[in-house]
Amino acid sequence: MDTQEVGAELHRLADTDPLDPMDAHALLARGRRGRRRRRLFSAGAGIAAVAAVAVPASLMPNLDSGRPPGVAGSSTPATTKAVPPDFTAVPGVPRGEAGAALKVSYAEATRLCALRYPQYKRPIQRNSFWYTGYTVLYELQRGDKAAQCTIPGGDKPSTALVAAARRDPMPATAAARLRNCSVVFWTDVTKWRVMASDTSPQRATNLIAVSPSGRKAVRCTLVPKFDDTAALGSGPGVFSLAGQVRQVFDNDFAQFGMGYAQGCTGCETKYYDGFGRVASNIARIRIAPAGSRNTHDITVTDGWYAVSWLDPDPHGSGKYTLTAYDKTGKVLKTVHN
Amino acid sequence: MVDRDQEYVEFVEASSASLRRTAYLVCGDWHRADDVVQDALYKLYRSWSKLDRKGNPLAYARRAVVNAAVDSGRRPWRREVPASDLSFDRARLDDHADGHAERDEVLTALGSLAPRQRACVVLRYYEDLSVEQTAQLLGCSEGTVKSQAARGLETLRTAIDQARQIRRPA
């Protein structure tokens, strides 16, 4: 068993966190209360200690229960204009992370797809399983156009949010990308952490983000013309990390973990596309297509990687080498497809 | 909310899960790990305005968490599996019968290490810190980190390999 395997075992243990995410606002409130207590105590010992208990709340305007600002029940000026929420609830699906990658029945998947895509009256295809965040096909009959449903999670995006995603389908910032991914999956991933991303301006941005609890992740592709469904056949877009195993960096990985497709119809350029997770000691991967003048490096963070690269050199043979480097730049391994 | 507080909230949201996982690997108990991290983040808030944020509040928080987890781990290390996890693990036994058994053995092997050895192994092979970073975090020499990590790793490897041999069908 080498150190990589030990590392992988430790990650697998650590990924079994059964507890809820920490409440950051409650911690903030606790920190503020601690700070006020120290200020009062520094004014003069015993009397200040009594005063800390006796001072009415009106003299401590920041004293709150740790609720974020704007929550109903906190005092806000009457003239404040109510801002419509970015997301509203989807009946029958938990909000946020709890509603992401949720296993549902065929009947429930059918209901959710009908809610999201009322324009399609056909049934969805029967698969082995259905999860929120998973894209399924509608059944095809003669004369039908192919259509698909990304089974929605519990956060329906507002009209304004959808419009923002359509106006800016391949944004440059992490915040805007997560906004658009939230619109694709009907799951609020705006507070998730982007672990890896890569962009080919002509083709797509691929990114992986992990939830605040660390229990779920989203693989999201954003394309130049906004598409409100995730790509078919790429597996569940939102998935649970429990039981996930990191990919071994070997020739099979070169074959399947980071494949390429024809860059455009009738031409020889290659588009490299993929996302996943490898060992944590890999900090960078270089793609070097045989016959091409170009190479492409991607940053790997805690094993997470994403690739979206169009090699413009038409002389690439389709064979390529992947080289993994550690954070000092030392070559760890080279593999081939 | 003032900018400083907003920064703190964002930091907690981004890092608390990962800090808790590290604390768990060092102290062996999810609830204790949660307590350790909450205390460390509370103390971090007290120093937030003094911290040089061009530096690394995560390094500061990790140091507080690991040292507190090591101290808490000097009490008998025990593996607690919450009831919800048991049912979750049972549901997956059909798919990954070996996976569950292996995970228990890794946990047991980790628990057999002394707290500081365990911290060295976790920081070096889970957090991927360098020898120098690990030494700074634990407040010991690089030589100590190397020897503790090497011994801890060896113990872990031996325990896991032995357990695998015992389970191998005759």
What does this structure look like?
Chain A has a domain at 159-336: Immunoglobulin-like, CATH 2.60.40.10. Chain A is built from seven helices and 17 strands. Chain A has helices at residues 3-14, 24-42, 45-54, 106-116, 159-167, 174-185, 251-256; strands at residues 87-89, 103-104, 130-131, 135-137, 148-150, 155-157, 193-200, 204-210, 216-222, 238-240, 259-262, 270-277, 284-289, 296-299, 304-311, 320-325, 331-336. In chain A, a hairpin with a 5-residue loop joins strand 16 (320-325) and strand 17 (331-336). Chain A is globular, with a radius of gyration of 25 Å. Chain B is elongated, with a radius of gyration of 18 Å. The termini of chain B are far apart. Chain B has 170 residues and is mostly helical. In chain B, 36% of the residues are buried. Chain B has a single domain (2-167), classed as Up-down Bundle (Butyryl-CoA Dehydrogenase, subunit A, domain 3), CATH 1.20.140.160.
List keywords for this structure.
heterodimer; A: 337 residues; alpha+beta; Immunoglobulin-like; four-stranded antiparallel beta sheet; 23% helix; globular; B: 170 residues; mainly alpha; Butyryl-CoA Dehydrogenase, subunit A, domain 3; 76% helix; 0% strand; membrane (chain A)
